[in-house]
Input
Amino acid sequence: MGLFNRRKDRPATSERAEDGQPAAASQGHVPLAGEGSPDAHDAPGAPGGQGGGWLASLRRGLKKTADLLNTDIRDLFKKQGRLVDDEFLRELFAILIKTDMGVGPAGEIRDRVQRDYRGRVVQMDDVLQTVRQGIRELMAQQDEPIAFAAEGPTVILVVGVNGSGKTTSIAKLAYRLVAEGRKVVLGAGDTFRAAAVEQLTIWAERIGAEIVKGPPGGDPAAVAHQAVSRAAESRADVCIVDTAGRLQTQVNLMKQLDKIRRVVGNQVPGAPHEVLLVLDATAGQNGISQARGFSEAAGCTGIVLAKLDGTAKGGVVIPIRQQFQIPVKFVGTGEKPADFADFDVERFVAAMLPASSDR
Amino acid sequence: MFDSLQEGIQSALKTLRGKGKLTEANMREGLALVERSLLEADVSYPVVQDFMTRVTEKALGKRVLLSLDPSKQLIGIVHEELVHLLGPVDPTLHLKREINILMLCGLQGSGKTTTCGKLSRLLLENNVRPMLVAADLQRPAAIQQLHVLGDQLGIPVYSEPGAKDPVAVCQNAVRKAKEQGIKLVILDTAGRLAIDQELMDELVRIDKRVQPDQVLLVVDGMTGQDAVNSAQAFNAALELDGVIMTKLDGDARGGALLSVKHVTGVPIKFIGTGEHLDALEPFRPEGMAGRILNLGDMVGLYHEARKIVDAKEQAELEQKLAQGQFTLDDFKGQLEKMAQPGLVQRMLGLIGGPMKELNQMLQSEEAEGSIGRTVGIINSMTPQERRNTKLIDPSRRSRIARGAGVPPQAVNQLIKDYERMKPVMEKMAGMGAGGRMQAIRELQEGGMLDPGGRGPRIKKGTGKRLSTKERAKMKKQREKDQRRRRREERPQQP
Ligand SMILES: Nc1nc2c(ncn2[C@@H]2O[C@H](COP(=O)(O)OP(=O)(O)O)[C@@H](O)[C@H]2O)c(=O)[nH]1
Ligand SMILES: [Mg+2]
Output
C-alpha cells in the first residue's frame, strides 16, 4: 500500500510533465578528469555529495545551477520558497524520520516529493501539507472505536510489551465507559508482575468498576474466564481483561494469549470483541515487530497509543497501518484517567508534522 | 531488502575488491546502507548523521586490502567506530566506604523498579546489602511493587505509605539507612516525561537534597527517535552518571543506546535482558554494536550454541578442553551437533551477517555432505590416530582417505582445520564471556567461520569428483580397511 498515490491536487503549483528524472539529476554530474567514478548516482539523503574538498563543492555548485535552470518558470514569481534540492530533501527526510515512521515510509515520501517537485521552488510547509494529507488518508477509520457486542458482555482483551502502559490504559478506558453509563468488570490478568494486581485494584476502586483477581502467579486464562463469567452474571456491559507485559519474541507467552482468546471465545460468542495492543508512543521501529507478533498471536483489532503527551510522535503506527491494517483507536495523553481520547487523525498528524512556525 | 547489513554492503561493494582506495564515491552506496541500518535500529537522526561523518572520515583513503572483502573492511571500520562510541565500559558503581546513594530515573515503564531489584541482587552477590526506597508516589501500587521485590531478595524497603513528598521520603530513608549502618541506598523514583517541568523539578530537588553518588538513567531498549530528547533533558537536569538499557531480551535493535550515549556522554553500565531479577548484564559494546548494525552477536551465538549441547556434556567437554585435550572425537561431536536439524533455525535469530554464510552453508545439502564427509574421515581413523594426529603419516593418510572415500588432501585439510581450532577451543574453555568473545573473534578472523576460508568446506572448492569406477574401487578398499580397523580396535582379544 503506497502512502502517496499520485494526487491531482498537489498544492504548491500546477501540473507539470515530470516523468523520469528531471534533467538536473544528470547535469549535476560534470565529469571531472581524474575524479573517480562520475557515474555514481547522486542519491538524495546519501551521506556523500556534501563532503569536503573543492571538487565536491564545485560539483555541488554546478548542481545547484542546473537545478535552478530546471526551475519551473511559475516558481520564479513566488516571493519566498525553497529550491527542492538535495538539501531540501534531506531536511524533509529528517523531519519524517524524527516521527519514528521509519526509513521505509520516510524514503517513500522523500522520493515521491523528489519526483514531483525536483528543481521547483516550494515551501516546506506546502510539501508537508501534502504529506499530512497522505497520512490522513492512510490512517482514516470508522468513528466508533469499540465494536460492542449485540448481546452479553463486550469482552476487550488488552495486550502489549512490558511497560507500554496497559494497566493505565485499561483504567482510562474503563473510566470512560463507566462515565458513559456502562457497567464494567476488570479482569486482573497480569498475574506475573509484582503488584500489578494491586495497581489495577486501586484503579478499579477509583473509577467504580468491579475487579476479578486470581492468585499471584496464577493462570491468566483462568482469571479471564472468571472475569467474563462475572461480567455475564452481573449483566455488565463490558469486561476488560488485563494481561502481563510480554515481548513478542517470547513464544510461550504469546501462545498464552491465544489460550485466553479461546477461553473467552467459548464463554461469549464473538469474544474477545476487541483485542487492543497498547503501544508506547516512544517506541521506535520495534513497534512494527510488536504489531506483527501480537496480531499473529492475539489478532489485534486496534491500537492504543499511550504516552503521547511527551515529545515522542508515535509515527511507527504509520508503517503498522500500512503493513497490518491495524487502526489506532485511542491515545493516552497523561497519567490521569481522563487523559484518554479517541484517535483523532487530524490532531495526530498536526502534532506529528507541525507547520514550521510551530516547530 | 537485505536480511542483514553485511549482505547489503557485500552486494553494494562487490565491485570494489582490490580497487585502490576507499573514496567517497565508491563507498557511497555501502555507507547509505549503513545509514539506513542505523536508522532502522532507531538511532536518532542527528546522531546517525554525526556518526556517518566520522565513519566516512575514518574510511576515506584507506587502501582496499587485496586479501579482504571490501564490505568486511567497511563494516569493520563502522563496527569499530560504533564500539568506540558506545564504550568505554564501566560496570562498577564506584562504592565508597561511607553510605552510597544510587538514584534511578527515567520515563514511565522504562523498567526502573525492576532494575532496582536487579541491581540489589547483583549487590547481594557482592556482599553488599542495599536498602530500597520507594520514591515513586505517583503510580498506584508502586510502593507495593518495590516491597514485593524487596521481600523476594530479603532486603529492607523504606516507604512511607500516604506520603506526598518524595524529597522528604528520600531524606528520611537516607537518615534511617545511616542509623542502621546500611552502606547502599537505591532510590526508585517515579517515571516522568522530560517535558513535565514540575516532575523534573521534583527530581532536581531530590538530587539537591539527597545528593546521590550515582544517578542512573533507565532507558527502554525499544525507544525510538525520542531518546535524544529525553536523555538530553534528564542529563541537563541531573548530570547523569550512567545509563542502563532494559528489555534487550527481545528483538529490539537498541539503537537508542547510541543516541543516549551521544547526548549524555556517560558510560553505559548494564543492560536488562529479562523480567527476572537475575537478568542484568554488564554492558559490552562489541555485542551491542553488532546488534545495532544487525551483524549478529557472536557471544550471544556462542551462548545459544552452548544451550544446545546439554550441560553435562558441556561440562565434560570444557574440562577436557581445559586439560588441553580437544581430540578429533570431540571435534567430530561438535560437527555432528552443527549438522543437527533445527539447530540452524534456533540460531537464526542470533545470526547476522557474517554468520549468515555459515548458516546457509550448514543448511545446504552440500554442506551436510561436507560435514558428513568430515565425520567419515574421522571415522576411518583409529582411536589412537584420533587422539594424536601426529601419528598420521602418509601411508596412514592414504588408508584413511580410502576408507572415507575422499582424496588424501581432504584428510590433510581436516587435520589442519582441527589443529587450528584446537587452541582456540582450549582457550575458550577457561575464560569468561569477554575472553570467549575474543577467542571467537580470533577463530573468525582465522577464517574458520568463513566459507571463503576453511571450515567444513563446500564441495565446489576442493571437490575433485571421482568417477563411478574409482568410487567402486575405493569402496572395496574401504571395506577392507574397516575390517582391519576393527581388528586394531580390539587388540586384546585372543
Ligand atoms: N522483558 C523485559 N521486561 C522488563 C525488563 N525490565 C523491566 N521489565 C518489565 O517492564 C515493565 C515495567 O517495569 P517497571 O520496573 O515497573 O518500570 P518503571 O515504571 O520504570 O518502574 C514490567 O513489566 C517489568 O517486568 C527487561 O529487561 N526485560
Ligand atoms: Mg516504577
Remarks:
- The beta strands of chain B are 100-106, 130-135, 157-158, 184-189, 214-220, 242-246, 268-272, 280-282.
- Chain B touches chain A through 62 residues (CB under 8 Å).
